[in-house]
Amino acid sequence: MNLLGYALDQLDTMAGITDLEGKIIFANQSALKHVGATMEKVRGVPFKDSPWRSQSDKAKKVSGLLMEKARKGETSLVEDSIIGADGSEIPVLFSISPIFDNQDNIVGFLPEGKVISDIKNLEGKIKKEKKEIQQWIDSMSAYIAKSDPNGKILSCNKAFMRAFNTCFEEDQGSYICDLAQIENTGDQTNLLKNAIMGAKGGRKSSLEVMLKLNNGSQPAGYFLFNASPIKDPNGRISFLALEITDISDQVQLREQVLDREKRYALRLEQEVAIIKRHLVKTEQFSRNLVESVPIGVLYLDHSKRVVYANPTMKHQFHTSGISKGEITGKTIEELGLRSANNFWKIDKAQDQDEQIYGQRKMVLLKEKEAHFCFEVRSGPLVTPDRTIEGSVLTINDVTKRVSLESELLTTRIQAEKMSSMGLLISGVAHELNNPLTSIIGCAEYLATKENLDSGVGEAAQIIMKDAIRASRIVKDLLAASYKNHMEERIVNVNEAIDEMIGIRFHELKHSGVRPVLRLSRDINPVLADPTQIQQVVDNLIRNAVDAIVESGVGDRIVIRTRMQDNWIVITFEDNGPGVVKENLHKIFDPFFTTKKVGKGTGLGLSVVYGIIQRHGGTVSYDERFNSGARFVIRLPVTPESSSFEEPASVDLLWKPTSLLLADGERNLRYSLSKYLTRLGCHVQTASNGRAALDLVLKNDYEMLLVATNLPIMSGFSLYEQIKARRPGQIDRLVFMYDSPSDSADSAYFTYNLQMLRKPFGKNDIFNLFNRFHKKISKRN
Question: Which UniProt keywords apply (predicted)?
């Protein structure tokens, strides 16, 4: 018995053993597990009252019937269910079989149950899928039917039933050819039958037919009939899938397309005829286009010989001495066209290069000298059938551009020279300013000394005047070399013109140009930088003289001044060649010049324009003047005064009682300290920035007169140290500087301090003291 129980436990079905009365002797583990019972609880319990059968009267009744049949030696199989351990209903396939001994006597019964949940689920899925497939087929607009191999309808979708006005229950088994109302029944019916027979033979058949739907209530339309054989796993044809699709719109569209194609073909023939007529004109136009372009075009054959040259290229060759009839049949080297390097010199290495296509520089020689400069682009000469018959070269004449680039390079070199000259002038001015300041200071000291010999006093006056004159020359040189902030003051324009004519008098006389001045006496002053105003006058005079001398036309410059409302109008006229109309829009552009290379920088008029603009005025060229050139300048008059004041001696209104003088020049410190001491100032001196800082840290001064270029510690560094360590003294600082520079401009605008430019004299010192006192008084 134990061995039998062990064997039953190996089964995946529920199984047990009962005695002849139906009481449970044994139940395997699968049976116990499904109902959540143990062997002790079910042993001896009648099978119909066991957990497998006691849930309902129906189950007990079924168990009783199966047990009765088992007692008769029969085994029955029924589909039933049990209630599982979790309370869920479990479908099972249930049976009770008799157990026989060796003499065929029934000694017990074997109840057995097979859980069929998976089978039930599978059946449900299959039913659901069948339903979904049918719904999907019913949703199709095409008419779908299933028939046997002979074409008799087995099933169909709703669209099929509506189209053929049929009822499936009534027409099931009908022949498809009988249901379809076919137009031209003779031929098309036979074709439809042949399609069915073809599908029965295993071939998919398609047929385009005309059908009438809804018992002929609708007009006949075009339909596509498809019959596809469906085979079972053994390869036998199980049924036919029939699909009927309405293609009336497609057929109509096809007929329209065919009709359109016919009309298009006719129109195409007409267009081809027109194109052929225009082809000759197009070819002629293309040739005219190549011949009329302003760049040269050459066609070369495979041996690099010229087969065609357009008129532009022929003209280029003709200019270099080659007649038009000598061009065809020659190589470009034989015609004098040679490869060039970046400097437009002959490059023999490129001449030997076999490469045809690309871009390169070339020169056209005339008697072994470069005559024209060309930019050449080359590519394959392709025929309409895509074969290469040679190469085509497009040749752009850039001779003028190369010349302009060369002139620009020369101008840039000249500008660099001017910049270098400016640096040189700055250095020279620095070396002159300090000695001049010392000379002026000593001369003024001697000139004001009492009981001085008359000869010595006169000599001191001469020294002082010439030193001041030299300082003005240095300032003018610096003004021409640097673009610094303007030193504006009241300027008499007439005097500026007179002075510049005086400076240029000998040059004008030598050039054969006569200046004519027509200056109004009734003009107001302007607030301007006198050096820059003189530069404007000088540039315009030079411009007129150069034009007259180079052209040989004219001999006179007329300069006029007059008042117009609150403006001074200055006109510069000459009877020279004037300005050509093509250049009027660029005469004020930097580097624009009509002079020969090396004769001018092209900056003269642009500098004039910039200076006048900075002074709030305008400068223009009078196009209406046709007897030479006329430039018109308009400058605003100063609102402070309407008349000129002669420079006068300045009265000293205040002087500092204690003053620190810091400068690296010993002579300047000596002469200036002597002069300031005589004025009544207590002066202490320092030769470098470090010594000056030590004095400032120990003493209080009413004024600190500091050079910007002090040794050891510059004036600007000294400023920062005083600002950090003695802020109360910072407003007392005045910078002395030699020449305008970026650092001097920075001090003027950033620090907002008083500035004293070297060389300076008595009036400059008095003006500084007066301005300084006024500034300090306002602040206090």
Answer: ATP-binding, Kinase, Nucleotide-binding, Phosphoprotein, Transferase, Two-component regulatory system
DSSP helix/strand/coil, 117 = helix
Question: C-alpha dihedral over 375, 380, 382, 386, to 10 degrees?
Answer: -150
> Cα(84)–Cα(115) distance, rounded to whole angstroms?
11
- Nearest to 607, CA basis, from 582, 587, 621, 577: 587
Identify the pLDDT of residue 181: 63
What is the reported pLDDT for 707? 93
What would the 3-class secondary structure string for 468-481 be?
Answer: HHHHHHHHHHHHHH
How is residue 622 written in tokens? 């009078």
User: Would you state the CATH architecture of domain 2-115?
Assistant: 2-Layer Sandwich (3.30)
Cα angle 350, 353, 355 (rounded to 5 degrees) comes to 115
The CATH code of the domain at 658-779 is: 3.40.50.2300
Q: Say what the pTM is.
A: 0.34
485 Cβ contact partners less than 8 Å away, ≥ 6 residues apart: 740, 745, 748, 749
| Least confident residue range of 71-80, 138-147, 366-375, 431-440 | 366-375
Position 357 scores a pLDDT of 67
User: Which residues in 283-311 are b (16+ Cβ under 10 Å) and which e?
Assistant: eeeeeeebeeeeebbbbbeeeeebebbbe
3-state helix/strand/coil string of 551-587 = HCCCCEEEEEEEEECCEEEEEEEECCCCCCHHHHHHC
CB 141 within 8 A of CB 108: no
| Contact partners, residue 4, CB within 8 Å, separation at least 6 | 17, 26
Yes or no: say if 561 and 501 are a contact pair by the CB < 8 Å rule: no
Exposed, middle or buried, 542 (CB in 10 Å: 0-12/13-18/19+)? middle
- Give the Cα-Cα-Cα angle 456, 462, 468 (nearest 5 degrees): 135
pLDDT at 194: 85
- Residue where the block lists tokens 């020294």: 463
Class of the 129-246 domain?
alpha beta
Rounded Cα–Cα distance for residues 749 and 737 (Å)? 14
Q: Are 470 and 699 in contact (CB under 8 A)?
A: no
% of the chain surpassing 90 pLDDT: 13
CATH number of 293-397: 3.30.450.20
Q: Report the alpha-carbon distance of residue 210 to residue 192 in Å, rounded.
A: 11
Fold for the domain defined by 485-636? Heat Shock Protein 90 (3.30.565)
Q: Is 188 helix (H, G, I), strand (E, B) or coil?
A: helix
CB 366 within 8 A of CB 336: yes
Domain ranges of the chain: 2-115, 129-246, 293-397, 485-636, 658-779
pLDDT at 479 over 90: no
Is there a common fold for 129-246 and 293-397? Answer: yes
Which residues touch 339 (CB under 8 Å, ≥6 apart)? 346, 347, 350, 351, 353, 360, 361, 362
CA dihedral sign, ordered 162, 164, 170, 176: negative
454 burial (CB, 10 Å; 0-12 / 13-18 / 19+) is exposed
